[in-house]
Amino acid sequence: METPKKGPALHIPKSAATVQVRVLDTKTLLHLKPGLFWQPATPGWDGVYAPVYCFLVSRNDQHVIFDLGVRSDWHNYAPRIVKLIEATTTIVPGTDVFSLLDTEAAGLGIRPADITSVIWSHNHFDHVGDISRFPSTVELVVGPGVRAASWPGWPTVAEAAVLDADMAGRAVREVSFDGGLRIGRFRAHDFFGDGSFYLLDAPGHAVGHLCGLARTCAGDESEASFVFMGADACHHAGVLRPSSFLPLPSNAALSGVLDDASAAAMRCPCPGDVLQGALKSPSAPFFEVSKGPLFPDHDAAMDTVSKIQELDADDAVLVLMAHDLSVRDQIPFFPETVNDWRARGIKTGVRWLFINDFLPALSCSKEGEITAQQFN
């Protein structure tokens, strides 16, 4: 085991203000392919059917949704996007955020009409949903440059990626990061103006790509907690870990996170050794974001990943990426809040679960020598 490097100070401004965070899972799944979303591709592993997490962030009587996921009637996206979906991925449809709120939130007293803002982390189909179902009083919040990159939409522009209806009769607000505020190395925007919820500038994947950071518990260093909403800064936790702050742990620790399928696929009781064979270093991630159309600014995307790794190193920050299958059965979902994640020990419990996605694709040779099947 390598000695972990101490994470840098994040310099999150002190505040007694918090928000309630509820993770929304509409049960929609997308097939994510290695090589397209992260690299290198791994022989024997054809990817995952991944969820799409959205977030309901509540501050007193203000309720904000961070991302809307995939609309259940995805054939009604702009024609260009429908063709893209049909050519590149498989969708296992679930419900949608509006319906989830409308049918399950009655006990909370939070209905679609109570939402004040919808935030798009970016303008890709699996995050924009169908905002037209929400009242026109609900503002749409986007990152820098998104308005010009998105509208006019379809049908005004035949090859548009979003719809004219997404902004029709609705206030669209672009956030600015010119105020000089920083969280870690991220440029930040204080959404409510009280330190309870920040939007972060996270370029690389799409124009105006945003992440979120919500203060879920106030207090000193041992009590404070935050939830980081990573959107599509990366599509698999193996892009984030291991890191110099969280190197690969011991065999004993890794054995404790194996699920039945991974354990059955192992032909020797040494998952750490097998995984070491797939790493350039015990403190370097298994993957990086792919070079290609999904990360048009690869250097910026990798820099964003490195910033997230610094937050991931902090015990007070729970990093939740939009498509992380490994946490799906481990965190409380809407209508419950995730605010008590630190007391539940969720962060340490889920940290290495992602290895179950690809560990069966690795093997031990008959002689016991580790092979990584061209992982690097």
TrEMBL record:
Keywords: Hydrolase, Metal-binding, Zinc. GO terms for molecular function: hydrolase activity; metal ion binding. The keyword Metal-binding applies. Pfam families: Lactamase_B. Residues 51-273 form the Metallo-beta-lactamase domain. The keyword rRNA-binding does not apply. It comes from the Eukaryota. SUPFAM superfamilies: Metallo-hydrolase/oxidoreductase. Belongs to the metallo-beta-lactamase superfamily. This is Beta-lactamase-like protein.
